[in-house]
Amino acid sequence: MKILIVEDENKTADYLQRGLSEQGYVVELAHNGPDGQHYALQYEYDLIILDVMLPGADGFSVLRAIRAAKQTPVIMLTARDRVDDRVKGLREGADDYLVKPFSFIELLARLQAIARRGRGQDPMQIGVGDLQIDLLSRRALRDGKRLDLTAKEFALLATLARRQGEIISKTVIAEQVWDVNFESNANVVEVAIKRLRAKIDAPFRHKLLHTIRGMGYVLEARDEDAELE
């Protein structure tokens, strides 16, 4: 899940970026209204966290520009606990509203609620063979045993699971999980795949994570006779 934070207070922006990154989200920052509007319209995000009081253009004007072009979910932040501000934000098209200071846990809960609504019929649980992945609670079990995954390892597994049976290139994985582009000789993805494979495959007889040479990786359950790696 890729999130844009538009927040001019560096301390708040850094806190949110660090906390959400630790939860496995890909996070980008903008520190003023014009930059936030540009990023929101130019790129695709799963959710935008938008402060009301911004230099250059306030959050309400940025929200109006976003809603004129797309329906990306938006959570608005404000230091002003005024009913008319909250009503204005919701009428302008905000999906939710938080008043500073707020609990990070509450932000996560609201973010997850919006994600559930947006996904519609997209399942929150994915099964690949005897591997079960709960995208909401961020848990993965194989053969009934809990897998000890880091935030990035879970994000990588979720990316592969959502497109199970499909070969995903290193470039696509890097963009989805790390939000970076890198040269072809970089080994970021290879190292991450190796660590993930050690946890989800090494202790088990049947392998689920497969390397397709020259193309990328695929997560799928195969017949034992077809497992060549």
UniProtKB/TrEMBL annotation:
Question: Is DNA-binding given among the entry's keywords?
Answer: yes
**Ranges of residues in domain Response regulatory:** 2-115
Q: Which domain of life is it from?
A: Bacteria
GO terms, molecular function = phosphorelay response regulator activity; transcription cis-regulatory region binding
Entry GO terms, CC: cytosol; protein-DNA complex
Where, per the database record, does this protein carry 4-aspartylphosphate? Answer: 51
Task: Give any single GO term for biological process.
Answer: regulation of DNA-templated transcription
Pfam families named among the record's database cross-references = Response_reg, Trans_reg_C
Give UniProt keywords alphabetically. DNA-binding, Phosphoprotein, Transcription, Transcription regulation, Two-component regulatory system
Query: Which InterPro entries does the UniProt record give?
Result: CheY-like_superfamily, CusR-like, OmpR/PhoB-type_DNA-bd, Sig_transdc_resp-reg_receiver, WalR-like, WH-like_DNA-bd_sf
Q: Does the keyword Methyltransferase apply?
A: no
Do you know which NCBIfam families this protein is assigned to?
Answer: cztR_silR_copR
- Output this protein's name: Heavy metal response regulator transcription factor
Name the source organism. Solimonas terrae
